Amino acid sequence: MNHTDPGQLALKAAFLVTVIFSFLFGVLMEVFFEFKILPLIIIDVLLFTFVFLVFRYTLEKFIYQKIRLIYKTIYNLKRPKGTKSEKRDYEMNSIENANKEVSEWAEKKKTEIEELKKAEIYRREFLGNIYHELKNPIFNIQGYVLTLLDGGLEDPTINREYLIRTKKSINRMISIVEDLETISNLEISQIQMKMVRFDVVELTREVFDFLEFKAKKKKKELMLASKDEKPVFVIADKNWIRQVMVNLVDNSIKYGSSKDGKTKVSFFDMDENILIEVTDNGSGVAPDEIPRVFERFYRTHDARSREKSGSGLGLSIVKHIIEAHDQTINVRSSLGVGTTFAFTLKKV
Asked: What does pTM read for this prediction?
């Protein structure tokens, strides 16, 4: 029905009952009594009025008031917390809307509950990861200091070595805290991006120079896709993009192939944007781990099997920096072939 308010439903019900009654009563009068139209009309009018009033009252009292209450409850739950309640007309012109409204509300709440569950799982993992990352340097510092206090301080063969180790553990803790602060500031947009025009190819060469010693130490080759790569100008925060490139290239040096390891940076014109890819020929990332590589402290199976270094927050910072530029970053990988991180920047 297109009109299912109480008045319309009651009218239709009263009309239907009256027509049926008139037909049956007319047949009975024709068979057993002399048929008279006037009594039949009077009875029909009284019956129509009675049925209409009874149906309307029943619908209003026992059905529509309950549906209005559901509407009112859903509306109040949808309102943001702290907003004042306002008078609202809950009269409905279609009873089908009640089912639609409730279904939509229930689906929304189901989605919210699922998101809350995911957030709770992420929170537990995050707290566990922070504990794990900070526990090692704290316990190391405790062990070194206790050793020095127990007499190691007077032993020239170990005192300086243990102080150097203590310094490394302290620097690791500082690195973790600073990276967490950076991510937090990026998330709440407290860091303003200083957008400038610069050559991202030249910036990549600077990053290669900065990491050249580390790459040679691990016997890794850093290269551009084309040796005669032409300048590619973008508009972005140069310092933050430098950090992105350092993190991605450094990551490829760590986890690239142990033999003939190569890190290649490529540039592709994408109309309004430039696509930048950082590719290594390492062992790759398992498909089930790819969605999690940008999570804080998350380490792939390959990374967990290696000596840990850094704060474990590099890729998470990279993701936040790119998103702060209103751009995107993704990763693709094949086991035994290598991994590619690709992100976009605004072209000028």
From this structure: 0.61
